[in-house]
């Protein structure tokens, strides 16, 4: 988020940590961080479902959204329907781990989000994002 909307990046990996797809999203009229992070979580869970995946590891810098996603009760406010959508998707067999991590700890998703702000996010990723994906994959010890 930069005051001109919100963006999010997601990477789908196989069981070996290889990137099999990526997605960026940009919401030009969303300015509140918790709303943007909830939309990003829903988008990521939907993406996992489209690949018939069963596990998602969602890392967010927004502790409020992570807390809502892990508490599974008592949502109120404008993001309540989004959180509810995520839980419905999870009940369909997608298991999730939601954790709070600073932007610096999730560099690839942050670079993808920046890509959404600067480009139409169509076509190929810039070389610097591809390099970050590969470095991230090499740093993974296991997945799932």
UniProtKB/TrEMBL annotation:
Source organism, top-level taxon: Eukaryota
Record-annotated RNase H type-1 domain positions: 4-116
One MF term in the entry's GO annotations: nucleic acid binding
PANTHER family linked to this entry: BNAC02G40300D PROTEIN, REVERSE TRANSCRIPTASE-LIKE PROTEIN
Protein's recorded name: RNase H type-1 domain-containing protein
Originating species: Sesamum alatum
